[in-house]
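Quarterly update from the structural biology core.
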Amino acid sequence: MISLIIQVIFSFLATAAFAIITNVPRKSLVYCGLAGVAGWVLYWGCLQLGGNAALGSLLGSLGVAYASHVFSRWLKMPVTIFNIPGMVPLVPGGLAYQAVRNLVVGTYQEAVTAAVQAVMIAGAIALGLVLSEVFNHNIRNFKVKREAILKLRIKERKTKKKFPLQ
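Predicted structure, tokenized:
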């Protein structure tokens, strides 16, 4: 339990600090931190349940994207304000460092392993963002089409009431 609290605190701080560096609006700092926490908790939970880092990163990026979408609609701000800082805890910087370090030291097998893992995690993060955007786009289109169909049906009912014999 204490480990989870520490994970949440530091993911919030890392995300909020990056949000400050990238000059997001002041009123969105807490929500940026919460988006980062959502992604990190999903990532960490996946690892605790035996999943690998790529799957955890995919789930984490989906969580960040969903939280960003909710916060952007609620605060009427662009999604990228929450997306970009929210992804910071998921970025495989340590793995990329290890890959380069092992390459310089000469342990090429370990360098390749770390580089492949870093690329897989980065790809999973990108895939999560793309999937989330596709889902959000499809849901928006479905709502727009549903509203258009409902308006058309209401219009047809009104014309039938005015001209019942047609």
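The chain has six helices and no strands.
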